[in-house]
UniProtKB/TrEMBL annotation:
Gene3D superfamilies: 3.40.50.2300, lambda repressor-like DNA-binding domains, Periplasmic binding protein-like II. The lineage of its organism: Bacteria, Bacillati, Actinomycetota, Actinomycetes, Bifidobacteriales. This is ABC transporter, extracellular substrate binding protein, probably Lactose porter. Keywords: DNA-binding, Transcription, Transcription regulation. It comes from Bifidobacterium biavatii DSM 23969. SUPFAM superfamilies: lambda repressor-like DNA-binding domains, Periplasmic binding protein-like I, Periplasmic binding protein-like II. GO terms for molecular function: DNA-binding transcription factor activity; transcription cis-regulatory region binding.
Length: 761
């Protein structure tokens, strides 16, 4: 019987030896790319020295070491094997590998790439190399993987890592030349939910070349490749038609052309259509689709050859293949104007013809985050102008919105509302329900699941998600250095740090928590594993647990911190709070990721003195829970005329999903779009004020969101009762624990009056 090594080092052993937290070790070994490179390298060095990792392969010692000499298996990670361009590339890879004596394991990214990056199971595969055709992986993780085994990237360049790509610049220029020669002066880019490996570069090149040649370019988002969606895409196109369309997915282009012809639109006499790739099916339609031909199979062959060279310890150069523009029957001389117009459908908020200039009104607490998006949209759509209405705090905005609706005057078309307020306005039927088949098909996958869920209520979708929020800890490095303390990983460490600070200066506070509203207090409950309330699946029964032991225990812990002088509960808008921070009397601030911009604006002279970190855990740091504070959506009023309502929806979806909009947003804002969360340019980016990789910390905090976090459908009332019960007791000598029952009973009474069934646990 084989003996068992009972002395194999554990993650705790590595953490102790490396002088880091257990969670840091777990992230470094299981999800490379989530820590800074120096810390990650140090942890891996310790793990190798202790025997946890195999020194030759960097794999866990319990797994058989797979080296280039011991296996002929190559893994190919593909974005979408149903995409024709991807399929052709894989064919080229597979054939060349087989001819050279290698075997290919083909895996779709959804099976192997998680929010953390490459799944742990991938690292156990006995492979000699990998070909990766995906942009979602972060640069640091790719470099960490390249240090372990040979890899080749497809359609993406990274210094020091072998890559293969398609050069599309000349083909794009020839396409634009042809369209211009035919008398076409405008072009719509039909963007699929996932534009594929080359979509980003194609869109950028087409936009640049079109601008150079004076051709106006619009973008239509969420264009699905099925026949039913193509009809909806055509209706959206007809709202603001152009002389030509291009899609990076031939399936979208072919079905769009079929839908256009079914509506009586002559191709190419009225409209030119161009696709991308070499799908065998494109020649079956009439007219034949013009396209940018992509030598994907040849590229796949090149990438496979490059990988084989790497396995043999050679140093191949990056490879590139030239795309070519292939004219066909779907382009030609434009002989007449478009004959069809959009079908008016009030059920579809993106299907409305605008023939006259239109002014939209938008109400928000601040336009700082949105000004660049609005300005860019107004530039692209000169027929649309946006009148800004400053509405005050979120509570004031909600109150003002109700009053405007009651009086029937000056109701804003768009109102920026925090996620927690949205359910009540939806329940009171004051918001436009965006949950149509066309919207679901076009946009559901373009938002992070948490944020899409936040705007969904009882089967409806009542807003366009804007930003993603999660609790963070902001610390003053100069204060930490002055008192010789370290960043607390747990709340127990936070309180011990507070005692150490007060021992040297009684005025010091370890951490400040905002009392402007109940959101930070509720977030702390979820972070501690408490669950103050829940709802059943159909949204008719509410379970309240504000007097449960976990909630009482967490509130008592907070009370003790306040009484001891470690926790400062204060409205962050108060002048006194700002002065205390400026005077260096507050070591840390607990807030959300969006607060970093407040820091920059309020204390501009403290550049380089602040750092963002994960918030403390209420238990083991490896079991950290974070929670939401804030986060907002653009909501559309259902009380305004259809023309303005639909124009507002078009603006909202463009602002929150189109790369042209997301790319102009301010630094330090965390978008709710999947495009943003998959953008490899954000990780590793040093913020000049905080002097750190800010987005790396944001993304890591988002990975730990409490899974059961939710709001009640009447948060304004919850907030009002909190302000009269618990909040006044969040002071030294106060009794917030004693007010939990009062808070709960008033919530229960209000819920019953609204028709909910209430269970108190």
């Amino acid at each position: 019987m084989a003996s068992v090594n009972r002395n194999r080092p554990t993650l705790n052993d590595i953490a102790a030896e490396a002088g880091v937290s257990l969670s840091a070790v777990s992230r470094a070994l299981r999800h490379p790319g989530r820590l800074n490179e120096r810390t990650e390298a140090h942890i891996r060095d310790v793990a190798r020295r202790l025997g946890y990792l195999d020194a030759a392969t960097d794999r866990q010692g319990t797994q058989p070491a797979a080296t280039a000499a011991s296996t002929t298996l190559v893994v190919i990670i593909a974005a979408d094997i149903n995409d024709a361009t991807t399929a052709h590339a894989i064919d080229g890879m597979r054939r060349r590998l087989a001819a050279r004596g290698y075997h290919a394991l083909i895996i779709e990214e959804s099976d192997i790439i998680t929010r953390d990056g490459l799944a742990a199971q991938f690292r156990k595969l006995p492979v000699c190399g990998a070909i990766i055709q995906r942009r979602a992986l972060r640069d640091q993780e790719i470099r960490a993987l390249a240090a372990q085994l040979p890899i080749v990237l497809v359609g993406r360049g990274l210094p020091g890592v072998c890559a293969g790509t398609i050069d599309t610049a000349d083909a794009v220029a020839r396409m634009i030349d042809a369209l211009k020669a035919e008398g076409r002066t405008s072009l719509t880019y039909l963007a699929a939910p996932d534009d594929g490996v080359f979509g980003t570069q194609l869109r950028a090149q087409i936009a640049a070349e079109a601008a150079r040649q004076g051709i106006a370019m619009l973008t239509l988002l969420g264009c699905q490749p099925d026949t039913a969606s193509a009809r909806g895409t055509l209706e959206r196109f007809l709202n603001n038609p152009t002389h030509a369309v291009f899609s990076p997915d031939n399936r979208v282009a072919v079905r769009f052309m079929a839908a256009a012809r079914a509506r009586g639109i002559a191709v190419p006499d009225e409209l030119a259509v161009v696709g991308f790739g070499d799908d065998d099916a494109i020649g079956l339609d009439r007219p034949t689709l013009a396209r940018i031909s992509c030598p994907a199979e040849e590229l796949g062959t090149d990438c496979a050859e490059s990988l084989i060279s790497l396995v043999k310890a050679q140093r191949p150069a990056d490879t590139s293949r030239e795309a070519a523009f292939v004219p066909a029957g779907s382009i030609g001389k434009r002989t007449r104007a478009l004959s069809a117009s959009a079908v008016r459908d009030d059920r579809t908020p993106l299907a409305e013809v605008r023939s006259q200039p239109i002014e939209l009104t938008m109400m928000a607490s601040s336009f700082q985050d949105w000004e660049q998006h609005i300005a860019e949209y107004e530039r692209l759509h000169p027929e649309v102008s946006v009148r800004r209405i400053w509405g005050g705090t979120q509570a004031e905005i909600v109150s003002s919105y109700y009053q405007r609706v009651r009086e029937g005057r000056d109701i804003p078309d768009i109102t920026v509302i925090e996620y927690r307020w949205l359910p009540q306005l939806a329940e009171d039927r004051l918001l436009l329900n965006l949950n149509t088949p066309s919207v679901r098909a076009a946009f559901r996958r373009q938002f992070v699941g948490d944020c899409w869920d936040a705007v969904s209520w009882r089967g409806g979708v009542y807003g366009v998600p804007c930003d993603y929020d999660t609790t963070m800890l902001f610390r003053r490095t100069d204060v930490f250095d002055r008192f010789g303390v370290e960043t607390p990983r747990t709340w127990a460490e936070m309180m011990r740090m507070g005692a150490a600070l007060r021992a040297q200066d009684p005025r010091m506070r370890a951490v400040a928590v905002n009392t402007l509203d109940s959101a930070p207090f509720i977030a702390l409950l979820y972070m501690a594993g408490a669950r103050p309330w829940s709802m059943d699946a159909d949204g008719t029964t509410i379970q309240l647990a504000l007097t449960s032991e976990p909630v009482r225990r967490t509130t008592a812990f907070l009370r003790d911190g306040i009484d001891q002088g470690d926790v400062l509960m204060m409205n962050f808008n108060d002048t006194e709070f700002r002065q205390m921070v400026a005077d260096g009397l507050v070591a840390c601030v607990l807030s959300a990721n969006w607060f970093c911009e407040n820091i920059v604006q309020r204390w501009p002279d403290e550049r380089g003195l602040w750092r963002a970190a994960l918030p403390p855990s209420f238990g083991d740091p490896s079991e950290l829970r974070t929670a939401h504070i804030g986060g907002s959506a653009w909501t559309i009023s259902n009380r305004v005329p259809p023309e303005r309502r639909n124009a507002a929806a078009q603006l909202a979806f463009w602002a929150q999903t189109d790369p042209a909009s997301i790319d102009v947003q301010l630094d330090r804002v965390m978008s709710a779009s999947t495009y943003f969360h998959r953008n490899p340019r954000l990780t590793g980016k040093i913020d000049p004020f905080f002097n750190q990789k800010l987005y790396d910390v944001f993304f890591e905090a988002a990975e730990h969101i409490a899974p059961d976090f939710r709001y009640l459908p009447f948060m304004p009332q919850v907030e009002a009762v909190f302000a009269n019960t618990v909040r006044p007791q969040l002071v030294p000598g106060g009794d917030p624990v004693g007010q939990l029952a009062n808070w709960q009973s008033q919530i229960a009474a209000f819920a019953r009056a609204k028709g909910y069934r209430v269970e108190v646990g």
